[in-house]
Amino acid sequence: MTDDHGPLTEGYDRTPQHSSHHIPKIMMMGLRRCGKSSICQVMFHNMPPLDTLYIESTSSPSTTVFSSFIDFAVVELPGQTNAVDPGNEELERLFTESGALIYVIDSQDEYINSLSNLHSIITRAVEVNPKINIEVFIHKVDGLSEDFRLDAQRDITQRVTDELLDDGLLNVPLSFHLTSIFDHSVYEAFSRVVQKQIPQLATLENLLNVVCQHSGIEKAFLFDIKSKIFVATDSSPMDVATYEICTDFIDITVDMDSLYTIDHSQTPALKAADTAFGNELDGTDPTFNKSKPIGSTTRLNNGLILYLQQMVKGLALVCLMRKESMPKIALVEYNIEFFRNALEQLRLLTV
């Protein structure tokens, strides 16, 4: 397996598949130039979306290891992979080990061939692993109007489900997402995929509900800081605008925090303190090299308060509160500390 996409972002790794046998896997498939590599590079390696125009087509399988509250590997397969070949033992092994299969369709291209390929893949994948979640990313919708996006989604959904019914394939775990690397839609879609792979999701949601209920919090997200994937949120309704504000707030907080990062390698006392706290001392990652977790609070123009506090293992709790909650901020932080401890206990149970 090779990697032709340049330097990697700290915390992720493109590795041969044999090194991640025991890590849950998410497969990514689709025809050539559909956007699989672009999604991986933007989400996991902080590549600017416009730079993905120069990425070469995937010629061999590659694996990106994601390390956060849960560890999993995203396995990207070339577009020419033959899913109907019964002798492809490597593909069957991946189907067996994977909890989800993401199939990417280029919405700006004729997708008849993609749908035919998708049907073959679903048929084979469900035969090998009936529990695998099939996630269809209707990608590159940034070039379509809102009406065309919805029309494409309806058309693709209808065609895929009708073909599966004709083959007698009922109750296939199948979801459809409109995505683009030029907005937050691909992050939200990938978050939904990841959440289905987290056995502790219900527990995390219940913990967030309790924190919101007793702290006057309107909405809470538990984000992976690096990828902007939210691993859980409370049960209150979510709108895209709130999600976008929270992800932007993470970027701003990390950027501002890096302005005041101390070089621990030149400060023995702080270096010893970080070692005692068990923190990484890699100066390239300002979000993890301090003994004190990063945090930030800001007031929006509409009067709402954004509050961020770093949690365990690269997670951040991002909350949206009304201004009436600010006089009780000590209570909010007290409850969040209990939430942090519960997260740590939950993480230790999964190790």
TrEMBL record:
It is found in: Endomembrane system. Residues 1-16 have a biased composition (Basic and acidic residues). Residues 1-21 are annotated as: Disordered. It catalyses: GTP + H2O = GDP + phosphate + H(+). Coiled coil: none annotated. Keywords: GTP-binding, Hydrolase, Membrane, Nucleotide-binding. It holds the Pfam family Gtr1_RagA. Its main location: membrane. Component of the GSE complex. Belongs to the GTR/RAG GTP-binding protein family. GTPase involved in activation of the TORC1 signaling pathway, which promotes growth and represses autophagy in nutrient-rich conditions. PANTHER family: GH16429P, RAS-RELATED GTP BINDING RAG/GTR YEAST. This is GTP-binding protein. It comes from Myxozyma melibiosi.
